[in-house]
């Protein structure tokens, strides 16, 4: 064994304790760290010929890279829709690395069974029936891709072909209808060979990002055959929701696969005040939920669910002598694009076991209360205006006067030490958005963000 590796093995307990102390110190300072530090990333170095050992690597990381990293795990990182990592999820992620399981095969099946238990817990968390089956994937983009791949196979089933076997061209032209599809949807259509042009925008309700059910029915009538509908449970701009029950009811008259992108909006099911927003979610044929958002587990974790695991296995089955048979309950290797992956479910298992439904409901309720409070604060700041009601956890706002992208970028830069906000365009108007999904965020953070905005607005 290489001497540096042997030394690290011999001193592993002491070294892990050193890593623990360093990590605890970093997390303890997270709330006061500049959210986006005004520090340039270091110039790249060449690969060292002689290694420094674990302690040397930790010291080099702390010296060169840590100063430039954002506080994305902290309470005022409000860009995108970004959760942090709960204490239990952090422990689960550490155990994921410790045990280093590849949970895709029943030949070594404990990790696979742990994932199935976790999927069952999540299904209960979102109020879904056991008709939904699922697996962990790396993010919402992959989850949407898997759901649409199953939808593609469903279209083939209707046409008497198998796109997985014969290619997407066997389907001819495909129509995918959506009111305000996330950017990952056309990306998925490109990957699946259906093409970005398959996506047809359907008019939304006035002043909303929610699809107009009457307009959707007209589009379905014009489609004149089986197609795919992508409904939204939480749009990224404004946190808007399609009327899922009204959309699902259209299947009585028109043949379509219903995929629901509930990347963060699915968590509305936990809150009595917001659960009505996802009424009808159980009727979906496939569902996307992003767990490194509001479940607050580390990045690289999402859930895909479907009522047709048989079609899913038709797409993703992997034939190899060293793998188990397909069977009636396919191994996870037959259900997602990856043949091998880490045990992503363990961090989710830890946080669900540690805090339960009640703990995660509290996080959702606190985040939505913070979003409402910031919305109220924005309306009270001269020079700012809300662009949409705060429906869940997203605050979309702009400058009251001359809201151009350049001035909004300057505003975001001025508050970057206190809060990270991301740009968007809503209804043709450049804007900024703040999304609340971090387990640490509280009222004091909202006050700090509001104060930073009040201070910055006169200077842009």
Automatic annotation (TrEMBL):
Q: Does the keyword Lyase apply?
A: yes
Q: Does the keyword Lyase apply?
A: yes
The highest taxon in the source lineage is: Bacteria
Please provide the record's keywords in A-Z order. Decarboxylase, Lyase, Pyridoxal phosphate
In the record, which residues are listed under signal peptide?
none
InterPro entries reported in the protein's UniProt record? Aromatic_deC, PyrdxlP-dep_de-COase, PyrdxlP-dep_Trfase, PyrdxlP-dep_Trfase_major, PyrdxlP-dep_Trfase_small
Task: Give the cofactors, semicolon-separated.
Answer: pyridoxal 5'-phosphate
Write out the similarity annotation. Belongs to the group II decarboxylase family.
Q: What is the protein's given name?
A: Pyridoxal phosphate-dependent decarboxylase family protein
